[in-house]
Specification:
The complex is a heterodimer.
Chain A: E1 4-7, E2 10-13, E3 18-25, E4 31-37, E5 44-50, E6 53-57, E7 64-70, E8 73-79, E9 87-94, E10 107-108, E11 112-116
Parallel strand pairs in A: 2-11
Antiparallel strand pairs in A: 1-3, 3-8, 4-5, 4-9, 5-6, 7-8, 9-10, 9-11
Chain B: E1 5-7, E2 10-14, E3 19-24, E4 31-37, E5 44-49, E6 55-58, E7 61-65, E8 71-76, E9 85-92, E10 100-101, E11 105-110
Parallel strand pairs in B: 2-11
Antiparallel strand pairs in B: 1-3, 3-8, 4-5, 4-9, 6-7, 7-8, 9-10, 9-11
Classes of the chains: A mainly beta, B mainly beta.
Amino acid sequence: ETGVTQTPRHLVMGMTNKKSLKCEQHLGHNAMYWYKQSAKKPLELMFVYNFKEQTENNSVPSRFSPECPNSSHLFLHLHTLQPEDSALYLCASSQDTGLADGSETQYFGPGTRLLVL
Amino acid sequence: TQLLEQSPQFLSIQEGENLTVYCNSSSVFSSLQWYRQEPGEGPVLLVTVVTGGEVKKLKRLTFQFGDARKDSSLHITAAQPGDTGLYLCAGGSQGAQKLVFGQGTRLTINP
Protein backbone atom coordinates (compact mmCIF):
# COMPACT_ATOMS: atom_id res chain seq x y z
CA GLU A 1 0.00 0.00 0.00
CA THR A 2 1.76 3.13 -1.27
CA GLY A 3 -0.87 5.69 -0.28
CA VAL A 4 -1.90 6.24 -3.90
CA THR A 5 -5.12 4.63 -5.11
CA GLN A 6 -6.48 4.37 -8.63
CA THR A 7 -9.89 3.44 -9.96
CA PRO A 8 -10.98 1.58 -11.89
CA ARG A 9 -8.27 -1.10 -11.92
CA HIS A 10 -9.45 -2.42 -15.28
CA LEU A 11 -11.35 -0.69 -18.06
CA VAL A 12 -12.55 -1.83 -21.47
CA MET A 13 -13.92 0.84 -23.75
CA GLY A 14 -14.89 1.34 -27.34
CA MET A 15 -13.36 4.02 -29.51
CA THR A 16 -16.46 6.21 -29.24
CA ASN A 17 -16.82 5.98 -25.45
CA LYS A 18 -15.98 8.61 -22.87
CA LYS A 19 -14.53 7.44 -19.57
CA SER A 20 -12.46 8.84 -16.71
CA LEU A 21 -9.64 7.46 -14.63
CA LYS A 22 -9.34 8.58 -11.02
CA CYS A 23 -6.30 8.86 -8.78
CA GLU A 24 -6.22 9.83 -5.11
CA GLN A 25 -3.19 10.26 -2.89
CA HIS A 26 -3.29 10.18 0.90
CA LEU A 27 0.29 11.33 1.43
CA GLY A 28 -0.13 15.10 1.56
CA HIS A 29 2.01 15.50 -1.53
CA ASN A 30 1.99 18.56 -3.76
CA ALA A 31 2.80 17.03 -7.13
CA MET A 32 0.90 14.42 -9.12
CA TYR A 33 1.72 12.65 -12.37
CA TRP A 34 0.13 10.54 -15.10
CA TYR A 35 2.27 7.93 -16.86
CA LYS A 36 1.56 5.49 -19.67
CA GLN A 37 3.19 2.06 -19.50
CA SER A 38 3.17 -0.02 -22.66
CA ALA A 39 4.86 -3.33 -23.33
CA LYS A 40 8.52 -3.02 -24.36
CA LYS A 41 8.53 0.78 -23.94
CA PRO A 42 9.88 2.91 -21.13
CA LEU A 43 7.41 4.54 -18.78
CA GLU A 44 6.11 7.62 -20.63
CA LEU A 45 5.37 10.72 -18.61
CA MET A 46 2.12 12.31 -19.78
CA PHE A 47 1.24 15.13 -17.39
CA VAL A 48 2.58 16.76 -14.23
CA TYR A 49 0.59 18.88 -11.78
CA ASN A 50 2.09 20.99 -9.00
CA PHE A 51 -0.25 22.56 -6.47
CA LYS A 52 -3.15 21.85 -8.88
CA GLU A 53 -1.44 23.63 -11.78
CA GLN A 54 -0.35 21.72 -14.86
CA THR A 55 3.39 22.14 -15.32
CA GLU A 56 4.11 19.49 -17.92
CA ASN A 57 2.25 18.19 -20.95
CA ASN A 58 4.49 15.76 -22.76
CA SER A 59 2.93 16.25 -26.23
CA VAL A 60 -0.05 14.14 -25.27
CA PRO A 61 -2.92 13.92 -27.81
CA SER A 62 -5.99 15.96 -26.91
CA ARG A 63 -8.11 12.82 -26.57
CA PHE A 64 -6.48 12.62 -23.11
CA SER A 65 -7.65 15.44 -20.86
CA PRO A 66 -6.30 15.72 -17.29
CA GLU A 67 -8.01 17.45 -14.40
CA CYS A 68 -6.62 18.23 -10.96
CA PRO A 69 -9.30 19.77 -8.72
CA ASN A 70 -7.06 19.68 -5.63
CA SER A 71 -3.66 18.39 -4.55
CA SER A 72 -5.10 15.01 -3.55
CA HIS A 73 -7.07 14.11 -6.65
CA LEU A 74 -6.15 13.69 -10.29
CA PHE A 75 -8.36 12.59 -13.16
CA LEU A 76 -7.65 11.54 -16.71
CA HIS A 77 -10.64 12.01 -19.01
CA LEU A 78 -10.62 9.79 -22.07
CA HIS A 79 -12.58 10.24 -25.30
CA THR A 80 -12.38 8.81 -28.83
CA LEU A 81 -9.35 6.71 -27.96
CA GLN A 82 -7.53 4.47 -30.39
CA PRO A 83 -6.56 0.81 -29.92
CA GLU A 84 -2.90 1.86 -29.60
CA ASP A 85 -3.88 3.74 -26.43
CA SER A 86 -4.36 0.40 -24.70
CA ALA A 87 -1.85 0.33 -21.85
CA LEU A 88 -1.39 0.51 -18.09
CA TYR A 89 -1.98 4.06 -16.88
CA LEU A 90 -0.11 4.86 -13.70
CA CYS A 91 -0.62 7.76 -11.35
CA ALA A 92 2.14 8.92 -9.03
CA SER A 93 2.70 11.63 -6.45
CA SER A 94 5.70 13.28 -4.83
CA GLN A 95 6.29 15.70 -1.98
CA ASP A 96 8.15 18.63 -3.46
CA THR A 97 9.01 19.94 -6.84
CA GLY A 98 12.46 19.71 -8.34
CA LEU A 99 14.81 18.81 -5.53
CA ALA A 100 18.29 20.13 -6.25
CA ASP A 101 19.63 16.75 -7.35
CA GLY A 102 16.43 15.40 -8.93
CA SER A 103 16.22 12.62 -6.35
CA GLU A 104 12.61 13.10 -5.31
CA THR A 105 10.81 9.82 -4.72
CA GLN A 106 7.64 9.19 -6.66
CA TYR A 107 4.93 7.01 -5.14
CA PHE A 108 2.92 5.08 -7.67
CA GLY A 109 -0.60 3.75 -7.61
CA PRO A 110 -1.39 0.24 -8.88
CA GLY A 111 -2.51 1.53 -12.27
CA THR A 112 -5.56 1.19 -14.49
CA ARG A 113 -5.26 -1.47 -17.19
CA LEU A 114 -7.04 0.04 -20.20
CA LEU A 115 -8.15 -1.87 -23.28
CA VAL A 116 -9.55 0.07 -26.22
CA LEU A 117 -11.53 -2.00 -28.71
CA THR B 1 16.85 13.89 -25.26
CA GLN B 2 18.02 11.88 -22.28
CA LEU B 3 17.68 8.11 -22.62
CA LEU B 4 18.38 5.22 -20.29
CA GLU B 5 19.07 1.77 -21.72
CA GLN B 6 18.64 -1.24 -19.49
CA SER B 7 20.17 -4.65 -20.14
CA PRO B 8 19.25 -7.34 -20.27
CA GLN B 9 15.57 -6.75 -21.02
CA PHE B 10 14.66 -10.26 -19.85
CA LEU B 11 16.48 -12.56 -17.44
CA SER B 12 15.40 -15.93 -16.12
CA ILE B 13 17.65 -17.72 -13.67
CA GLN B 14 17.52 -20.36 -10.95
CA GLU B 15 17.14 -19.63 -7.29
CA GLY B 16 20.51 -19.13 -5.60
CA GLU B 17 22.29 -17.67 -8.62
CA ASN B 18 23.76 -14.18 -8.80
CA LEU B 19 22.87 -11.59 -11.41
CA THR B 20 23.62 -8.05 -12.51
CA VAL B 21 21.34 -5.63 -14.32
CA TYR B 22 22.74 -2.58 -16.08
CA CYS B 23 21.39 0.89 -16.74
CA ASN B 24 23.37 3.02 -19.19
CA SER B 25 23.13 6.45 -20.74
CA SER B 26 25.21 8.92 -22.70
CA SER B 27 23.80 11.67 -20.48
CA VAL B 28 24.84 12.68 -16.99
CA PHE B 29 22.21 12.43 -14.27
CA SER B 30 22.17 14.08 -10.87
CA SER B 31 20.56 11.05 -9.32
CA LEU B 32 19.60 7.52 -10.24
CA GLN B 33 16.71 5.59 -8.76
CA TRP B 34 15.83 1.92 -8.95
CA TYR B 35 12.25 0.76 -8.73
CA ARG B 36 10.71 -2.73 -8.67
CA GLN B 37 7.29 -3.39 -10.10
CA GLU B 38 5.36 -6.56 -9.37
CA PRO B 39 2.42 -7.80 -11.46
CA GLY B 40 -0.72 -5.79 -10.84
CA GLU B 41 1.12 -3.09 -8.93
CA GLY B 42 2.89 0.17 -9.60
CA PRO B 43 6.67 0.63 -9.28
CA VAL B 44 8.06 0.88 -5.74
CA LEU B 45 11.31 2.69 -4.98
CA LEU B 46 14.20 0.48 -3.89
CA VAL B 47 17.05 2.98 -3.67
CA THR B 48 18.31 6.39 -4.76
CA VAL B 49 21.98 7.12 -5.49
CA VAL B 50 23.22 10.66 -5.95
CA THR B 51 27.03 10.60 -5.80
CA GLY B 52 29.33 9.30 -8.54
CA GLY B 53 30.80 5.97 -7.43
CA GLU B 54 28.25 5.57 -4.65
CA VAL B 55 27.40 2.03 -3.57
CA LYS B 56 24.30 1.18 -1.56
CA LYS B 57 23.26 -2.19 -0.21
CA LEU B 58 19.76 -3.39 0.54
CA LYS B 59 20.05 -6.92 1.99
CA ARG B 60 21.10 -9.05 -1.01
CA LEU B 61 20.81 -6.15 -3.48
CA THR B 62 23.82 -3.93 -4.25
CA PHE B 63 23.38 -0.74 -6.25
CA GLN B 64 26.19 1.29 -7.77
CA PHE B 65 26.21 4.68 -9.47
CA GLY B 66 28.95 5.08 -12.07
CA ASP B 67 31.79 7.50 -11.39
CA ALA B 68 30.67 9.72 -14.26
CA ARG B 69 27.01 9.46 -13.19
CA LYS B 70 25.99 8.10 -16.59
CA ASP B 71 25.34 4.51 -15.59
CA SER B 72 24.26 2.29 -12.74
CA SER B 73 24.11 -1.38 -11.89
CA LEU B 74 22.02 -3.58 -9.66
CA HIS B 75 23.58 -6.81 -8.41
CA ILE B 76 21.52 -9.48 -6.66
CA THR B 77 23.26 -12.18 -4.67
CA ALA B 78 21.64 -15.58 -4.15
CA ALA B 79 18.46 -14.63 -5.97
CA GLN B 80 15.16 -15.81 -4.53
CA PRO B 81 11.71 -16.25 -6.15
CA GLY B 82 10.54 -13.17 -4.24
CA ASP B 83 12.99 -11.09 -6.30
CA THR B 84 10.89 -11.73 -9.41
CA GLY B 85 9.58 -8.55 -10.98
CA LEU B 86 10.23 -5.70 -13.38
CA TYR B 87 13.24 -3.60 -12.37
CA LEU B 88 13.24 0.00 -13.59
CA CYS B 89 16.00 2.55 -13.40
CA ALA B 90 15.12 6.23 -13.50
CA GLY B 91 17.41 9.23 -13.87
CA GLY B 92 16.83 12.59 -12.25
CA SER B 93 18.33 15.96 -13.19
CA GLN B 94 19.06 19.02 -11.12
CA GLY B 95 16.04 21.21 -10.62
CA ALA B 96 13.84 18.95 -12.73
CA GLN B 97 10.82 17.14 -11.46
CA LYS B 98 10.68 14.77 -14.38
CA LEU B 99 12.32 11.34 -14.17
CA VAL B 100 13.65 9.55 -17.24
CA PHE B 101 12.90 5.83 -17.06
CA GLY B 102 14.64 2.90 -18.68
CA GLN B 103 12.52 0.29 -20.44
CA GLY B 104 12.98 -2.15 -17.59
CA THR B 105 14.47 -5.58 -16.94
CA ARG B 106 11.98 -8.35 -16.39
CA LEU B 107 13.53 -10.77 -13.92
CA THR B 108 12.21 -14.27 -13.21
CA ILE B 109 13.72 -16.40 -10.45
CA ASN B 110 12.78 -20.04 -10.78
CA PRO B 111 12.54 -22.21 -7.64
